[in-house]
Amino acid sequence: MSIIANFTNNIQDLIYSNSILNLNNQINSLKDIVMHKTNLIKELEDKVTSIKKSLNYQKRKNKELSNQIKKLNGTYVEPTDETSRSPVYEYFKVDKEAIKTPIVSTPSLNYKEILANGKFKHSKAYLKPNFPNPDQICPNCSSTKEWHYLHTKTQKRCKLCLKTFIFSESQKIKISDLSDDQNLVFACPYCYKTLSFRVSRSAFDVYCCKNKKCPFRIKAKEEIIKTHGSLKNQDKISYIYRDIKTSINDVFKFIDSSKTDIPKRNFIFRNFNSKIFSKVIYFKVNLKLSNRDTAAAMKDLYGIDITHKTVNTYCKMASSLIYSINQMPTNNISNQIVGDETYIKIKGKKHYVWILYDLKYENIVSYHISEKRDFNACAVVFLKLIEKYKEKPKELFVMSDKFTAYPMALQFIQKELGITIRHTAVKGLEIHDGEDSKTRIAKQKIERLNRVYKESYRITTGYFNISGARHSFELWMFYFNYMRRKNGEFRNSLDFLDIKTNISNLNMPSRYALVFDHIRLKLSS
């Protein structure tokens, strides 16, 4: 029996193994079929893709031929960009000043008198931990939180006087305290309605007129519809006022903090004289050499062995001396100013150099270096400009690009100092139809000036701190205004030296030596 059982088990094992082999063969054949089908699908997809590409190519060709036919027939119309069709939306504009009107205080109820004349139960809403602004009182009867409950998602309601009011932490109307302690609110200068608070920015608060019958809104809407045929959500039609948070005194504090340090005593030359000092400044500034190259040039040409750190110390001292000349009021300044900004690197981070350039006398009249490209920096550089005039100008003509900080800062300066400022702007580097040609020429000049400055900045590969950037620009500004030749002649004379010596034939280091000696004597006296 055991032999028969073993034989039977062997037969069953053989049958089982044969069935497994058959199943494996079937699986392999199915895999081959699937692989074949996959290859066929891929080939078909490639054919479909190539057909689509050929169809798109034919469509483009047909469109080009159709446009050529339309151009020959004179019926071709240039396509317009519907997303930027509104010039009011594209270009930033500052509306005129808002009207400040006093708040008329209305008589309010006394919640204690209301409680004395009736029976009221405390509200239980204030017991909740998420009850908003619990310190707020009712603006109508001065009741406290015990008598308030939530009326809507943004409002509370008083149980005593049934007054509803907004429970937001921030006030929706900006209130300013004047010297006579009179509260004022902003009103639209066209419809005299109170402006609504929209958003708060770092330098200003934005208010908007929501009166749909405002003449400003109606006129803007009619002009857009007349020009473009329809009105879209991005079109600016409401009057907008921006209340500057920064005061004029804050801007003067920014100016004081950005000044270059003036030395308290004369520079003592322990090893070298002022002539060598002037040669170092000449190599560094006029010839645009680095500190190490300047030290190498002094060694090779004059046999004077100094280090690059000594060159850096000389440059800081020279810029501190020259600062008094760059910032002093002068007669060589007109009322035609063009402004622009460029960036530099300080510790690997972008900082911005604001430059104001005089079109008539072709010199730099003011500059400012800031961490941010914002309203405060723009206001500072223009206040520095006003300080350069011996007498406050009555009118200024300012040209710039369409950066939004310029019109806001100029409106702020005009309001605070009482100066009439006429501002024109152009967009980008390309010439556009309808723009002011004089402003475009001025913009091209100051862009060229930026490239000249970047040429001397490039050797530094960035600065270690903002003080070093200011020292470097002071030197370059003095070079550009007084030590630069154009058509073989110096742009400005050194008439502030008050000397009788003819300095027109002196070489550049000697001119620097005269300037430094003059400043040192002036500081010591």
TrEMBL record:
Q: Which residues cross the membrane?
A: none
Question: Would the keyword Coiled coil be found if you checked this record's keyword annotation?
Answer: yes
Output the GO biological process annotations, alphabetical, semicolon-separated: DNA integration
The family database entries (InterPro entries) matched by this protein are listed as: DDE_dom (IPR032874), Integrase_cat-core (IPR001584), IS_Transposase (IPR052183), RNaseH-like_sf (IPR012337)
Which keywords are on file for this protein?
Answer: Coiled coil
Q: Does the keyword Coiled coil apply?
A: yes
> Which regions form coiled coils?
27-75
Q: Which domain of life is it from?
A: Bacteria
Which residue ranges does the record assign to the Integrase catalytic domain?
325-501
Protein's name in the database: Integrase catalytic domain-containing protein
